[in-house]
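Hi L., both proteins are below.
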Amino acid sequence: MKFLHLLIISLIPLILADTSCGPKFKGKCTCGYTTYDNSRQYVVNCTDQGFKDTSVLGFLPQETQVLIFTGNNIQELPWNVFGAIDNLTELTIVDMSNNHIHEIRGKSFHHVINVKRLILNHNNLSISSDDDEINFHHPRVFSNFINLEELHLTNAFADNTSAELSEDLHDIFVNSNLTHLKKLHLEQNEISKFRDRKVFCDLPHLMDLHLGDNLLKEINFDVKCLKKLRFLDLERNKFEYLKQRDLQFLDDLQNSRKNVNLTIDLIDNPFTCDCPIQIFKSWLGKTNVTIRNMENYVCIRKTRRNYVLDLSLTRCKVNSHKHATSTTQTAALVFLLVVLSCVLLGLIVALIYISKDRIKTVLNPALTQVSKKVQYTTIKDDDAPEQYV
């Protein structure tokens, strides 16, 4: 018993040392090895400690693998958040969620060459290049994350973010050179459309694109350039149906690849039980794209809810057939008119060529008479006296 007592006493300094981050942290953070992401890692945890600046992050232990710095009140990330000297070569995960961050300076993140996951969820970022008061647009803001694989920006931007968000994001993606990025989270950012269709095209290794809980009504960004895309999350947006063009884009992407299967999720969108949804329903049954939760897709007709897969709109089928027939007939009529016009023009040209001698015989006397009149008028004008004023 005495031996056990002595053993416990001897271990107390080791235990305390394992959770203490040093005097700069003033006991507000815990540091040490723990299980994170199903593996044993050295974690620095500074959650809900009321920090108003990031000065303590310049003194992180060299063995830090995971930094959790969340729930504080940091309006701005200054230059060299992690210090100007030490290289944190073991650091792979940085979570700075829910810190009220408004500005990230262009040189905020240094010594992050091995970081693979950056989480900035639930902040108040302003990245617009059109800000009238202060320019918070730093297109190289993530440029030092050269091995970044996951970027989490859920509810990360300021309310009423500029409508040019897609252009600003594209500018950042291009200039930050995020060529290794595999997962991008942009949920809950009130995105209604992407004005720049190529917004994601400079992310060549992107595999998972999360756009759930936004305000999108169509897929108005280029997906065909995302050759490795395997999951597209469009849950809880504002889709009433998917346009034929959008469906074709998805099919083209899936059919252009052999070893990558595309999965899309459209659950909890406000689909309407009208004719356009019939095309979407038909596509669900024949596409090679994997549709997650499609058995739970619901559309609304007035106040009645119907499962999309159970929907039967016979009127739309008839109208669709009539429309197709009408379109075919119109095209055939136009083609026939063009052919007849060409034939008629050819006949006229041929008739003129065959009858050229007869036409010349008929027209020569008239042309001679006109020529004589012109000559007479010219002589008459030459004889007239000059007029002076």
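That was the first. Here is the second:
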Amino acid sequence: MKRLLSIAALMFVFVLSAPHAEAKKFGGGKSFGKSFKTAPAPKQKQQNTNTIGKQDTAKGASSKKGLMGGLLGGLLMGGLLASIFAGGGFEGIQFMDILIIAGVAFMLFKLFRMFMASKASSINQRQGTAYASPQASNNEQPSFRDNQQYFQGEQAQPQPQATGGFGAPAADEIPHNYPPGFDVAGFINGSREHYRILQGAWNHNQLETIQEYVSISLYNDLVQERANLEGEQHTDVMFVDAEVVRADHDANRAQLSLQFSGRYRDSVEGVEEDITDIWHLERDLTQPNAPWLIIGIQA
């Protein structure tokens, strides 16, 4: 018994002393630079008002279709029942038979409702994708440094709004004030690719690539952190998505905060972990064609 206890104690100590393997993601899993309070934008603010009229029209057409379908269905069912009663189809029927028929009819009705709902949902998703990705046909790679593609029209520099500005009172605690004409969907789509680019640069110690994306102070912190890792790393981004969790601007600068979610792994260590990073970006509006730079990372 004592021998078994000794072996168990040794195994417990070995497990506790074993080094914890983790994927070496961009930034080393630490927080650097500036940080801000963040939160997803309220649902009503993300609603596209241009589609309200289309939705109302679609609802009206759907209600008309439902009314006509109900009338035609009622006439058809009435005709069937009349023919069955007239032909003696219910002669000798039992109460249990009626329950079975009612149950089968209910099941068929539910299946029909589910089929129509799934069909309508797929149509709405295709319409939403077509609207949310107006630049999907563009094969050029989006870039934080190529800012003009995220602004529509002729506005090279966004003008301040009365509701914007740092420190100005907002309806919510977390501001979501975008510069005029800013393409949110295009920026988010580009950020996914840039997350992969920076992770690859971190793996191969390509500091010159990282320097193009970050502020000077953040770059110095990242250089010191990367120096703690020996050789190339093997962290692969399996999948990643992004969401704007803060946006604000004034006459001099614009700021955005992106929250990434997804999964990454270390192919050598055999470790998989979640992506939960937040990047804080800033753009100098006093300079033409100024790039978006990462000024803070929250792990």
